Amino acid sequence: MGDVVFTKKGEKVMSKHSKEQATISRRNLLKASAALATAPLFFTKGAYAKDFINNPGKSPTVTLGFNVPQTGAYADEGADELRAFKLAVKHLNGEGDGGLMNTMKPMNLTGNGILGKKVVYVTGDTQTKSDAARASAKRMIEKDGVIMFSGGSSSGVAIAVQSLAQEAGVIFMAGLTHSNDTTGKDKRRYGFRHFFNAKMTGSALGPVLKEEMGVNRNAYHLTSDYTWGWTQEASIKETTEDLGWKTTATVRTPVGAGDFSQFITPILNSGADTLILNHYGKDMINSLTQSVQFGLRDKVVNGKQFEIIVPLYSRLMAQGAGKNLQGILGTTNWDWQLQDAGSKAFVKSFGTEYGFPPSMAAHTCYVQTLLYANACENAATFYPPEVIKQLEGFKFDGMGNGKTEYRAEDHQCFKDVLVVRGKQNPSSQFDLLDIVKEVPRAQVEYDASIFGGHLGPYKV
Amino acid sequence: MHIKQKRSDLLVMSLFTIIVLSMPVWLDPVGANYPDLLQKFVIFGIFAIGYNILFGLTGYLSFGHAIFLGVGSYAAVWSFKLLSMNAVPAVIFATLLAGVVAALVGYVSLRRSGIYFSILTLAFAQMFYNLAYSVLTPITNGETGLQLSLDDPRVIDRLVSSAGEGLPVPELFGISMSGYSGFYFCAVMLIMAFFLSLKIFNSPFGLKLKAIKSNQHRMKYTGYNTRPYLLSAFIISGMFAGLAGGLMAVTDPLAGAERMQWTASGEVVLMTILGGIGTLYGPLLGVGIIKYLENIFSAINEASLQSFFSFMPHWLNEMMVMLVSPFVGEGWQLTLGLMFMLIVIFLPGGITEGFQKIKTKLTTNQKIQQGDE
Q1: What is the predicted ipTM?
Q2: Count of other CB atoms within 10 angstroms of residue B25
Q3: CB–CB of B174 and A457 under 8 A?
Q4: Do residues B249 and B323 share a domain?
Q5: B31 interfaces chain A, CB cutoff of 8 Å
Q6: How far apart are CA B170 and CA B246, in angstroms?
Q7: Which of A48, A140, A141, A155 has the least C-beta neighbours within 10 A?
């Protein structure tokens, strides 16, 4: 039965390239190889090429798909991700200043596209909804013939499209997704994540929290009600309770709620002295702003100054939250103020192109695109199982996060994590974060098996 | 008379069958020939046909039909998880469960009519959405959506074979339900649904529903109790929606709460009005237009516009791109909104009314010409 599906897929691919002759020539090829079945093996070896979905074959171009939220609570990150993707495509095709291709090592990219084929791309809007994201990804796979797709900003979406990637046999290089599940219980062989996760945020944040806020606090969680919120809440709770903190309550809020006042009022009389906001994007901007307006930060509870913690935030969100974020602790995957050669090179080329520095969402998407391209060069083919094997366990440096490794067991990248604080006296509208600590990779590493899940097969 | 009716039914059905099954051929030139979109066309077609049985025939405007779509999807995914990856039990469970839920919602909502009915269904829609989104998270997996997993029991499948290495895909006795085979499966369902709808339209039952629409009071005075008819129409249309929801899960085994949001209910209202309320094929036209805009228009970006207008001189090209770009890509809803306004203002009967107007114009023209001769 598998054969039927396979042939069907093959035909679909052909018609997509709108070359009727291609189908015919392939048929001829099949006939020819059938006729040559008795001929010596080396004779057919040349004629036999691994066929797989959306194989670029002889086409002079290769298509990548960028599926980002262009509307909804995470639209800001989506827009920045798209900028980064476009920049990456430029650099891969040898235009612009090359960006991180100057600092990445080891690297096999030549600025001549991927495997000599010019990179073109298609875009889609995930609307931060699983259904819409899958529809958009399916369009890319079935109609536009993408060989790889990327994007993100919501872990719910990332997990939904990642399982689609596995079903279809097209590699998904996740963009911004921070839930433990993406490379935990919902990990897939065809999905890869460069971004860090909630577990790592917890491990990185723990010591800093202990140092600054002591071991005797009562935490109140407001949590985005989906996979990312759930796992971040769990990871932070685990960390803080290990420190000796108590958890007063954990309250789930809908994504894109807009108004959080009904969730904030109960905090005032809960006896909690710390608020942990497991919110992201515009949700976090709204909930933080409203918390500050309700006077939470001016309160003194149990003889302690009330504190707010936002475990994951980005410079883009800091821009939205303005001075409300000043002094607030959190973690981030990357920041444009890092002074290593890779970060500098990326900020320079992004800044030249768009006139402002990139966000961490942009950084991770750019890096993912280059990593995929490089893996294809290393594998010398687009055949997904071979490309996956190149990415698994790949060690690299010079991409802005120091020495990084794609762990083969769960497709999670391991690298240093930044603990940041909202800057008190920003010098510009982009200079919003102080880096409190660069937590070394060894401190955030964990056993790949703790979250369960299966990667699934190489061949689909 | 009766034979004539039967013959015209046969003609309509065979035409419809040909049109639906040949969709991959005639949708190819407009760039809509890929399995996912074709599946969407037929699945939402079923949804809209069912909705039209309630809204088109009785005039009861429901804002809650996405409930049944969602319920159908969840039922189908649970059938995949617990019983078997076969599409048949999934579709049956989806339709039946949606029918049960429709009976409950309909029983309460149909105590009122007009705007009060609409508001009641809207309230139910919001309630069910919140149930799926947060309250019933163990069943629905909330915002993340319900997905298959390797550890699912799948009792019936396990009797026959052991679990494979990767996630299984929905199938119909061995035929994978992704891609074109999934489309043809849904297409057959659509043809059956259309046939049923045709029969209902032409039946005494359909006539009674139309009577409710034109004057419910008068009908009551003649001694009819309208409630059972309304409730049956509501349940039937709910089951159509459940079937559509189930098929969505068959072609893509994932069910999310956003499928039940009131905007999804609003979408089917839009589709029906856009195409033509109360006509047999109008809602299908509406589905085609909206899904096409959503999937094709939304994917057009500035680069593709530039290449589209590349035959023009540079300055004109720039200007055209600037003029057109707000209406494509993420602005596709703007286009839809404008189109909807124009249709509601100038063609209250939807696109089908437009066709009829053209037809009458052509025939009168012919008559005038004949008169001249």
Answers
A1: 0.80
A2: 9
A3: no
A4: no
A5: yes
A6: 11
A7: A48
